[in-house]
């Protein structure tokens, strides 16, 4: 069984960490509160944050990172705009060289969310290498790093490399085409489409 292709709820259920009743309650809470399933399970008291991250770390063989005080370089933050980082609950850590070429190490609270990974890869043009972090620490890092990012110098915009602007426009177009494709194939739920439309 390929754990990376299973949904988080299925993994936790198979491992006996949650019951079907608890999973159903968490899914209902997730739908109403528009948060991640893991966060729903934690908020409802069915799992602790540490237990959830420990389980994902061992079952998916993923690295767990501490984002407290972490500051990525601005070029890395630029790959994922703040609104999309919040929408997918992800935080870009560094650009690196992966097995399949250039990659982006991405802290994720739900590394089983293949829809988010596919969308981020399409948007950035890089392979995404998920690493684990809690939803709370990701939101704290987003608030700390994006909000405190100084506004760009208006003079600098005049000298902005045209290739950079073109690349950004192409990335946005690719992202929108990906959303349409996933919707057409029925791989995105109506709630997910609405979420992406607000981005």
Task: Give a written overview of the molecule.
This protein is mostly helical and 199 residues long. Among the domains are: 8-60; 74-148, Type II secretion system, protein E, N-terminal domain (GMP Synthetase, Chain A, domain 3, 2-Layer Sandwich), CATH 3.30.300.160. Helices cover 55% and strands 12% of the residues. It has eleven helices and three strands; from the N terminus they run ααααααββαβαααα. It has helices at residues 8-14, 20-33, 37-43, 49-59, 74-77, 82-88, 114-124, 135-147, 154-158, 162-184, 190-197, and strands spanning 90-98, 101-108, 127-132. Strands 1-2-3 form a three-stranded mixed beta sheet. Strand 1 and strand 2 (101-108) form a beta hairpin. Helix 2 packs across helix 3 (37-43) and helix 7 packs antiparallel against helix 10 (162-184). The longest helix has 23 residues, at 162-184. The radius of gyration is 18 Å and the shape is globular. The protein starts with 7 loop residues before the first helix and ends with a helix. Residues 60-146 form the Type II secretion system protein GspE N-terminal domain. InterPro entries: T2SS_E_N_sf (IPR037257), T2SS_GspE_N (IPR007831). This is Type II secretion system protein, putative.
Strands, count: 3
> Can you tell me the CATH class of the domain at 74-148?
Alpha Beta
Give the C-alpha Rg. 18 Å
Strand content: 5-15%
Give the rounded overall mean pLDDT: 78
The main sheet comes to: 3 strands, mixed
The side-by-side strand order for the widest beta sheet comes to 1-2-3
CATH homologous superfamily of the domain at 74-148, by name? Type II secretion system, protein E, N-terminal domain
Estimated structural class: mainly alpha
Domain Type II secretion system protein GspE N-terminal: 60-146
Protein name: Type II secretion system protein, putative
InterPro entries: T2SS_E_N_sf, T2SS_GspE_N
């Amino acid at each position: 069984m390929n754990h990376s292709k299973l949904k988080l709820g299925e993994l936790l259920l198979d491992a006996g960490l949650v019951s079907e009743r608890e999973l159903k309650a968490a899914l209902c809470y997730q739908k109403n509160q528009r948060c991640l399933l893991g966060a729903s399970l934690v908020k409802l008291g069915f799992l602790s944050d540490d237990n959830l991250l420990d389980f994902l770390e061992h079952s998916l063989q993923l690295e767990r990172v501490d984002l407290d005080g972490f500051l990525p370089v601005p070029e890395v933050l630029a790959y994922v705009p703040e609104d999309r980082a919040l929408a997918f609950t992800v935080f870009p850590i560094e650009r690196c060289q992966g097995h399949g070429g250039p990659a982006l190490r991405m802290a994720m609270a739900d590394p089983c969310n293949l829809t988010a990974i596919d969308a981020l890869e399409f948007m950035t043009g890089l392979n995404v290498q998920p690493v684990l972090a809690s939803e709370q620490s990701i939101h704290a890092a987003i608030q700390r790093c994006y909000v405190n990012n100084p506004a760009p110098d208006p003079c600098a915009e005049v000298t902005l490399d045209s290739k950079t602007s073109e690349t950004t426009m192409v990335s946005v177009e690719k992202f929108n085409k990906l959303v349409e494709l996933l919707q057409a194939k029925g791989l995105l739920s109506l709630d997910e489409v609405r979420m992406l439309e607000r981005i």
